[in-house]
Each structure stands twice: as C-alpha cells, then as structure tokens.
Amino acid sequence: MRRRIAEPYKIKAVEPLSMLSYQEREEALKSAGYNTFLLDSKDVYIDLLTDSGTSAMSDKQWGSLMVGDEAYAGSKSWYRLEEAVREVYGYKYVLPTHQGRGAENILSQLKVKPGDYVPGNMYFTTTRAHQEMNGGTFVDVIIDEAHDPQIEVDFKGNVDLNKLKSLIEEVGAHNIPYVCLAVTVNMAGGQPVSMKNMKDVYELCQHHGIDVMYDATRCVENAYFIKERESGYSEKSIKIILKEMFSYSDGCTMSGKKDALVNIGGFLAMNDEDLYTRSRELVVVYEGMPTYGGMAGRDMEAMAQGIYESVDDHYIEHRIHQVRYLGDQLQEAGVPMVRPIGGHAIFLDAKAFLSHLDQLEFPAQSLAAALYLDSGVRAMERGIVSAGRNKDTGEHNQPKLEMIRLTIPRRVYTNNHMDVVADSVIALYEKREKIKGLQMDYEPPTLRFFNARFSPKEVSLIHN
Ligand code: PLI
C-alpha cells in the first residue's frame, strides 16, 4: 500500500481566508479587468499566483525576528546569514541583496559587456533583462525536450552540451562571461538539472576558462529530484546533495523569497576573491552596506534560519509531494499539463485545455479568469499576454507554450486546499467548451501582463 505524506508541521497561527460568493467574484473579476494580477488579495480564496515571498515562516523564524540586529554596519544578523550560506551552499564569499534581481544586477554589471553571449538553460525574465541591459545576448542551451510540454524526461532542465559547445566554437570563450544555470528551471515548469549534467557543464566550462554561475532560486527542490531520480543519491541527505551541486559552480545568485523560506531577501555568492571585492563596491551603490544589502537585520535572521530549515529532508519531501498531489489528481482526470510535474507549480496547457479558442482570444488569460470565477483560486497567465509584442512588427508574440501556472506557496496550504483546486480545475475541464475567449481593452506598452485589462468576447466568460 502506498503510504501518504502529511504536512511535517502543525499549525500555530491561522490566517482566515476570504470566501466570496460567485456573484462577488464576478464583480471582483470585472473590476480587475479579467486580469488575476489586478485582483485584490482580500478577494482571493486560494492564492497560487506565485511561490515568491509567499512562504509561511516557522515559529523559530518568527522568534528570530526579535533578535534581529538592526545596526547599520557590522550587524550580528548578517554574520549569522553569511555563516548559513557558507555552511549550506559552500561558497567562500557572500553578499546580501534585497532580493534575487538585486544580485542579478550586480553580477551582470560586473561580468557582462556589450557583444557578450550568456548561455542559459532557458531564461527567467529579470535574469535575462539584466544580461541584456549590460549589452549581452542570452542564448538558450537547454535540451529541446524542455520546450515540449508532453515529453516525460527526468531532467528536463539539463543543458544540451552540444549546443553549449557549438556556441563556444562560434563566438569564442572570451565572449562568454559565464554560463547561467538555473536549478530548477522555472519557465520550463520547475524542471530539474541532473548532477551529472552540472558536472559535465562545469568541466566543459573549466576547460574553456568560463565561469558557471547558478540561479539557485529553487536549488533545494532540484536536490530532491536528484535524490529521487539519479542513481547513487537515494541514500544521501539533501544537505550533502546540495553541497555537491554547488561544488560544480563558481558562484550563484539567489532569491531568498523561494527556497530560503522568507518573504524578502537574496544574496550573491562566489568563490573568486576579486569578483567579491568588486561586487562589494556595487552592493554599496545599489543595495546598502555589505552587512545588510537592502534587508533589515530581522530579515537576515529569518533567512539564516530558513536556509537551515529548507534542507530538512522531511520538509522538502512534503513540499515536492504536495505539488505532485495536486498534479496527479489533474493528470488522472486527463487535464493537459506540463509533464513531468515540476518542483514549485503545475503548469496547465491552456492551448490544449481550451482548444476551441484561437491564441488571439487569450486562452490562458481566459482560463485563469474562469478558475477565479469558479472557485476564487488565483493562478498566473504565462502565454501570449506575458510574451508581449514583437519589437519590429508590432504583432503579438505567439509563444508555443500557452499556460497558466498554479504555483504552490511553501508551508501555506494543506492538501485539502489542493483538493479544492483540483475539483475546480476538473469541473472547468469537464465544461471547457463553455469557457469563452477575452478581448484586450487596455494594453500597457511594457510588461503588459501586469496591468492589461480584458473583457469577455461574448455576454459572459463562462456560459453556464
Ligand atoms: O523576485 P526576485 O527578484 O527575488 O527573484 C528573481 C528570480 C530569479 N530567478 C528565478 C528562477 C525566479 O523565479 C525569480 C523570481 N520569480 C518570481 C517572482 C516568480 O513568480 O516565479
């Protein structure tokens, strides 16, 4: 008999949820222009917009806030955070930043120059933006399978070594400041990279004198997939696996808002002393003193504690299994989604779900709106709206992947909440042809997905 995995914590403080009626949700959706980014949190029942900064802190983390040292310089809390990063991640030098993109800014400014190429296993929006703002060109070197939602591959986040080798041959190693390796890959559906692939990438890069910098944002989730799927790791602890992962890199950027179990914070870490010295100078310009970097002392205390808790084997086992618990129910009901199920979210394939809609009727936006209307669950559009317009032609970019992301915050919801989400998605899938398309009434010039407004193309979004 398969044994179930329950939450490895009990609940000490509760936060009541809003439970609006269908009519109230209809009103809220209308005033938000059918865009889930514009909904007020007070109108949302189960919030799966993002796993970023939405984690629940533990009693120890809340307790640690009281011992936060708010000194402007040389805060004790900074030294505790530095020690936690050194111990768990293994890098020699650490600098605090207000969140992940703060670290990306400093790294890109120091390493990327005009004409450079930055290979990566798919991109993340802010990471690529910083590389491009410094004159670099991002080059996707992820395996082809990552772009196909249906192909089942254990390590769909892996780098295709042949793509990387060809790029090095084509542009020369001196034009590649570093390889940016994300563990796991958010935009591919939270897909992991294997230890072997990390090692191979590192060896190839060392041979050519190219640095490997990880985007470590969801590194603990990646470590769990290695434990589960890669031979030789099933008996090893997450802490040991993580240390080995980082040994195949020269540094990392980190958004503490995900795997470090805090609501704000990040860091930049590296082994090279010269890069550290130069980064310290930019931290002062953009983030604050190198002993707080945009965080309050109490934030640093909470992150130090969160880093230790994140490598607890029971915590991460439940985390991955909770995402899978939701995904498995949807998969059994035949709901189309990115496979295999990744670490932090379920990505529904809105193109297949609402196959009667044209991509120009915004299927993912419509599905996210319909889900909110049906049950108050908030998801995020990752399709044609997020992809924006072509700079030259002004036409909509029509991405292959038209998805909504059901992102599971860490330690926040129980499996009963996952059941409610599954019931709603399945109910919508059963009456999918009744869900109609949207038209865009207001389109902001940049990052339109945040503020765009829509309305149903027909009388109502769902024809009940
Ligand atoms: O939001 P930041 O600045 O702390 O982190 C930026 C960032 C970097 N890398 C990756 C892989 C991310 O997923 C990421 C932020 N992700 C957000 C906000 C998300 O909703 O997925």
Give the key terms:
Aspartate Aminotransferase, domain 1; 40% helix; 2 domains; single chain; 464 residues; 13% strand; alpha/beta; binds ligand PLI; 17 helices; five-stranded mixed β-sheet; Aspartate Aminotransferase, domain 2; globular
Q: How does this model look, in words?
A:
The chain is of the alpha/beta class. Helix 2 packs antiparallel against helix 11 and helix 3 runs parallel beside helix 11. It has two domains: 22-51 and 313-456, Aspartate Aminotransferase, domain 1, CATH 3.90.1150.10; 59-310, Type I PLP-dependent aspartate aminotransferase-like (Major domain) (Aspartate Aminotransferase, domain 2, 3-Layer(aba) Sandwich). Helices cover 40% and strands 13% of the residues. The mean pLDDT is 96. The radius of gyration is 22 Å and the shape is globular. Helix 5 links the parallel strand 3 and strand 4. The two termini are 40 Å apart. The protein is built from 17 helices and 14 strands. The longest helix has 20 residues, at 313-332. The protein has helices spanning 22-31, 59-65, 76-89, 100-111, 125-133, 161-171, 195-208, 219-229, 238-247, 273-286, 297-310, 313-332, 350-353, 363-375, 384-387, 415-430, 448-451; strands at 46-47, 93-97, 117-120, 137-140, 178-182, 211-215, 251-255, 266-270, 345-349, 377-378, 380-382, 403-407, 438-442, 453-456. A five-stranded mixed beta sheet has the order 2-8-7-6-5, sandwiched between helices. Strands 9-12-11 form a three-stranded antiparallel beta sheet. The chain binds ligand PLI. Ligand PLI binds next to helix 4 and helix 5.
